[in-house]
Structures are given as structure tokens and as C-alpha cells.
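In the laboratory, one determines a bound structure by crystallizing the protein with its ligand and collecting diffraction data. In a computational setting the workflow is compressed into a single prediction: the sequence and the ligand go in, and a structural description comes out. We illustrate the idea with acetoacetyl-coenzyme A.
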Amino acid sequence: MAYNTLEVQTDERVRVIRLSRPEALNAFNRELMDELTDALKAADEDNQISAIVLTGSEKAFAAGADIKEMADKSFVEAYTEDFITANWEQASRTRKPLIAAVAGYALGGGCELAMMCDFIIAADNAKFGQPEITIGAIPGAGGTQRMAKFIGKAKAMDMCLTGRMMGAEEAERCGLVARIVPKAELMDTAMEAAKKIAGYSRPIAMMVKESVNRAFEVPLSEGVRFERRVFHSVFATQDQKEGMKAFVEKRQPNFKDA
Ligand code: CAA
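The predicted complex, in C-alpha cell form:
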């Protein structure tokens, strides 16, 4: 399907979705969010795809919700259409591994979208922030919650209350991003990570993702129990048999996603 606000490509078993609304620094208007939801669903449902990379431009991953589009919205409109959440959660519902490759601004909804991904690889020019307070709003797509869980209360309060931006180094230091790379190497690094993941068994990678995400939903004892159940279930897969046999036979495994 052709999109107006996205560029979508497939490289081996990796789907790359690039936000492309340069005139507004990839701000999320309705069309972009509808298209992104569609593209993420399509990648998740495609049996040829094992990992997804979500990225923007060198200047902006995304500058947040489209302020011009939402400025005149009434409370009743926002409430009845469940503004933002209804159409923004697809990234967090995606079951295949999803990497955010972030260069430039990841602000407001852009930072929230990056946090919905499984991990963030940041270019050295990346800037993260939740500046909603500066325009008389608060984060509306999970920013206060995910940021508090991922980087702790002190940093989350600082970021959401002051509206300041955080550079890549601070973001890595506090655990918001997994790695920083020079801007020119961002996509190569993200693709290398995505292809590595896509080279493993798809169902097993999905189980890893589901289990790590569980840590953010339930108490430790429940999370550990959940992990153990999933661990037991890997023994029902052919890929576990193949992976362990290959180790014993000192060869590369040939996973079948089965
Ligand atoms: N919505 C709509 N348009 C936006 C936008 C946004 N969030 N961010 C940037 N743009 C537009 C600008 O209006 C400008 O368009 P025009 O040339 O037509 O005026 C164009 O993109 C380029 O932007 P700037 O000229 O401002 O570029 P800059 O380099 O000087 O500044 C910036 C970059 C610091 C990111 C600045 O654009 C900015 O502060 N943007 C808004 C960031 C923001 O507040 N985001 C939060 C939105 S609310 C939200 O996301 C709610 C939520 O939780 C989901």
C-alpha cells in the first residue's frame, strides 16, 4: 500500500517504516497516525517479517502530536473520540520486535512513540523531551507513565515538569536509550540489530519480547512465574530442538519459525 506520510521498505526479514512529513518535522496528524497504525499492523501480520525498524529523518524522529490540528479541539471531541490513545497504541500492541532508530527531535508524542518501541537506538544528535507543559497540556500517549517506569521518578518529573530536552548522552545514561551511534551510522546499526534478531526464531523472539514487557505490568514474583511458563513452552518448539542440537553439533542453527 502507498502512503502519503510514510516510506515503507522491506530488507530481508526486516520492515523499515520511515515517518515522512518533513514540512512539520513528522508531527503526528490524523493521516500519519492512521497510516502508521496500518503499516505497523501489516508488518506484524506479515509472515515474511520478523522485526520492524521505525525511524524518521536526520532532523526529527517526530516533533509530537500536530499542534495545529489539535489546537481547537473541544473536551467532548477529545473524550468521545478517545483522542490519541484510540489511534496511537499500535506500536505498543505490536508483537514482533520493534526498534526505534531516533535522530533529531523525539518530542511529546514522538518521545512517547519511541518509548512504545522495544528499544531505542539514538543518533548522537537525538533530543528527547515531553514539552507538553510548555503548550498548556500534558503528555497524552503514555509519556508520564512510561518515562516514570523506564527512567524513574526524578528524571520523569524533571522532563515532564520543566519541558526541557535531554540529549542522547543523558538519555543513554538514564536508560532511556540502549545505544548511541554517530548520526551517519544510525540506520546501519539499527538494521544490523534488526537483522540479528530476525535471524533467530521468530516465535522465540516474540516470547522474549512478551516476557520482558511483562516486567512492566506485574509484580516480580508474577513476572518470574510468567517467564518460567513461557520458558517451559519453548520446549514445544522445533526451533528449541534445532538451536540446542546445532550448539552440540558445533554448527549454525537453521531456525524454521516453528
Ligand atoms: N505540530 C505541528 N507542527 C509542528 C510541530 C508540531 N508538534 N512541530 C514542528 N512543527 C512545524 C512548525 O510549525 C514549522 O512549520 P511552519 O514552517 O509551517 O511554521 C515546521 O514544523 C518546522 O518547525 P520549526 O520552524 O519550529 O523548527 P525549529 O527547528 O525552529 O524547532 C522544534 C524545532 C524545537 C521541534 C519546534 O518545532 C517545536 O518546539 N515543536 C513542537 C514540539 C512540541 O511541543 N511537541 C509536543 C506536541 S503535544 C503532544 O505531543 C501531545 C502528546 O502527548 C501526544
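Residues 24-25, 27, 63-68, 84, 105, 107-109, 112, 131-132, 135, 137, 139-141, 143 surround acetoacetyl-coenzyme A (CB under 6 Å). Keep in mind that any predicted model is a hypothesis to be tested, not a measurement.
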